Amino acid sequence: MTAAQKGRARAEVSQLQTFVWVGVDKRGSKIKGEYAAKNASMVKAELRRQGINPQSVKTKPKALFGSSGRTISAREIAVFSRQIAVMMTAGVPLVQGFDIIAGGQSNPRMKNMLLAIKTDIEGGSTLYEALGKFPVQFDELYCNLVKAGESAGVLDTVLDTVANYKENIEALKGKIKKALFYPALVIAVAILVSSILLIFVVPQFEAVFANFGAELPAFTQMIVNASKFMTTYWWAALLIAGGTVGGLIMLYKRSKPFSRFMARAVLKLPVIGQILHQSAVARFARTLGVTFRAGVPLVEALDSVAGATGSPVYNEAVKRIREDVAIGHQLQLAMRQVNLFPNMVVQMVAIGEESGALDTMLFKVADFYEQEVNNAVDALSSLLEPFIMVIIGTLVGGMVVGMYLPIFKLASVV
């Protein structure tokens, strides 16, 4: 599907509106509900097709705080994957399954997307083609797995595999975010508390020190100077901090050499680097195992896996592996050449290739490294607690000592 076709598909979905309708069924009972369509006429036609006489069809009023603007999260896609897998396993027709799932959505964008996919399937499109119109929510890997399932006639089994895959990947992402969020939050709070002390508390002490008429200790004078700068130029400090962070983010997104440098630097950090290494290996193994088990050829599977590792370093490594496999090298040999994967992973892949159970071995590797990430995150939390206490104690305690130092000096003179 071309970019223009994808753009038209997204535009069509954005034109869908949610209508609130009231009608009378064949028994004469009044019923009501909601339906997403391009216009009220389509809603009325659908109601009549179901044997309902429409009395009122109105556009649903928008939420007060604009919930219609919510984006579709990866977690919502994971939940949807499990729901449609359960529906298919239970024998519910695909179109009806989409209708049921869409009816339970609280996110209007998610609901409209599912109804648009349902409409495409009703029009004769395959599930793979319908999902392909939403590349942001359903990436190439997801669509390729669905395509393989449809081609082999085992769509229900593949959807169950996809659901397991999405749930495992989202759980792994959650662990990584937990590992990175906690120290970042504490450091941010420490900086905020220090700024408040410099702007509001230190000036009060400065007024007292002015009455002493004596020269302040060097450490105290340094804190007073910092307080004067923060009080006068706090806006400049905010602009510099915000500009630096924003500039680094833009540079990371737009410059491949910089993003590669940052990715390699982060991977070399003592504990966090190890967690990111293990998570990338786990995602590589699980993604490749899922695609290979679904019947996707190895070279094509590696194409999809490259973007699923979550690391520019591993992304490049997987692309090199794909090139080597494409010219006839064994997977384990290609993995050994990039010198990035642990020896245990390479050996497990070699055993899998020799025994014809590559997918099983890859799942075992993924399970092992996901558990390692779990353990590392717990260990990181325990390790960071004393380290964070030292940081907060140094910042806040240092300022308190600096402010009371002249008072201690004056008391010793008296």
From TrEMBL:
- Predominantly, its location class is membrane
| Keywords per UniProt | Cell inner membrane, Cell membrane, Membrane, Transmembrane, Transmembrane helix, Transport
- Subcellular localization(s) per the UniProt record: Cell inner membrane
InterPro entries in alphabetical order: GspF/PilC (IPR003004), T2SS_GspF/T4SS_PilC_CS (IPR001992), T2SS_GspF_dom (IPR018076), T2SS_GspF_sf (IPR042094)
Query: Matching Pfam families, A to Z?
Result: T2SSF (PF00482)
Stretches assigned to the Type II secretion system protein GspF domain: 80-203, 284-406
Task: State what protein this is by name.
Answer: Type II secretion system F family protein
Q: Which organism is it from?
A: Tahibacter amnicola
